[in-house]
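Sample 3 of the quickstart, ligand 3-methyl-2-oxobutanoic acid:
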Amino acid sequence: MTSPKKVRIHHFREMKQRGEKITMLTAYDFPTAKAFDAAGVDMLLVGDSMGDNVMGYDSTVPLTIDEMIPYTRSVARAAERAFVVADLPFGTYEVSPEQAVESSIRMIKATGASAVKFEGGRRIARQVKAVTDAGIPFCGHLGFTPQSETALGGRRIQGRGEHGVEELVADALALQEAGAFAVVLEMVIAPAARAVTQALDIPTIGIGAGPDTDGQVLVWLDAAGVGDWHPRFSKQFGAVGQALHDAAAGYVAEVKSVAFPAPEHTFES
Ligand code: KIV
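Result:
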């Protein structure tokens, strides 16, 4: 099977059916989105993880749709092949199906993203149905849902306990029934992720959910090694933080010592 020139919604179900893993990375701006698109990442997620990773907030909660729109637009402009999904931030979909549809339409029209994602299972199924009925592709997000961190009692692994797996499967089936094309499973015990993946026709994309989901997603700064710390379920595939530090330190040293700019960087006439 050759890789599609442009990844479209039906490709994800086909990938699940033939057992090809789906790759997703977060992206928040044009240059990183361009690099990830060229590297063959199937799906770019403009996640509300932008709140803590880009804007410097303590969590995803303060982020607004107005803040997300320009970043999302830059990612959508960069993506030639990848399918672009935009998160709806906290407070923009919970109140009613009407609110969810209005926010989704606003996000899609203003940015050129192809789909929206928001958090929750059965409790937001009416919103999901309304959004998909409006013709907007929807990606679910279950397990640890950062917008509800306080209600969940902190960053806790999900799917544990007597009814943990059952509850997750019921939520995932409700999202599928409401028209979702995929479901992200975050920080879920591997047996629960496996059970959800087997129960669904649509693909699951895991983050801290083990190897048996239909795809994987990571926050790009964790995957590229930008910070000193990354969650245990993530892996640093590069040392971009160190490379940025070294480039900036080299620049500072050469400007101070007047080694830069050299004659080849200078217009004499
Ligand atoms: O906002 C985000 O980056 C996410 C991923 C962690 C899946 O939702």
